[in-house]
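This part of the workshop introduces the protein records we will be handling. An example says more than a description, so a record of this kind follows.
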Amino acid sequence: MADKSNDKQRALRTSRGRSGRAKLPLIGAQVSTAGGFAPVPERAVAIGAEVVQIFSSNPRTWRTRSPGLEEIAFLTSGLRRHSLPLYLHTIYLINLASPDEELRKRSTSALAHALATGALTEAAGVVTHVGSHKGTGFDSAATRIVQAIRSAFEEADERLADLGHAEGLPPLLLENSAGAGHTVGARLEELAALLDASPRGRRVGLCLDTAHLFAAGHPVHETAGLEKLVSGLRDLGLLDRVLLIHLNDSASPFASNRDLHENPGDGLIGYTGLSRVIRYPAFARVPFVLEVPGADGRGPDAAAITVAKSMREEAARPPEGPAHAAKRRAEQE
């Protein structure tokens, strides 16, 4: 089903190309699943999202949730009706790098659940944080991570077989980290090593997060820094494996290793810096998803999407709405 989602993305880009937008990427957002998966497509449309990301389960608990067939049907039919590609994000508790065997087993099972849910919901990809090696070093952690990924794919296959589901699993996208607390993936070389060792016959790619890159010391806010990043991705064979980008401004300083997201243009990467990322030719076919607080702290909103789309058009920053203006004034007081 992942292939169907990819075909949908290509078709949408072709139609956009007829209006002169062939080389501009899709822009979307993390969307709330309060009340289940069924309301997601309409919520996405309401804020102007062109691509959707949701959590596979409550991100702050180990308790998994398996949506029913009717709920999945509402979700997938709505996504198709609005031509919205879907990405799933795993729970925050996952740590595939942990030296704690019990924690790693729980993480593997949670990842398997997300992959299976991704197949059922026709997701174009499943995004996961890799986790922290807890001071044991990357080399020993890499073996644990790759084995956990292999086991998660196998467990997900078994879950789908039990359901009589014949379609394959979506790609797994490893997300780069901000570098705090021995987390894996702040360096491109670590991500390259993990992808090179990934199970054969499985699709494993990357999800880049702009705030994480900035906090990890990649100067994506500067022209030369962005070009250096792209060159590094290309040299390591990673550029074609970037399948999603989280478009987040940063509330924490450059190279701080602190993961603090800010609304697009309101952080330290800035409007011009993020605009440069969106419009970089190497990322023209990669969807962008916002994971930002929004004006009220409840997540990405229509105003944030509007700002991101103006970045895509290389337009002047649009006027702030009342909520954003009030938030900015409060922060300055």
User: Anything to note?
Assistant: The domain at 2-319 is CATH 3.20.20.150 (TIM Barrel). The CA atoms of residues 37 and 67 lie 8 Å apart.
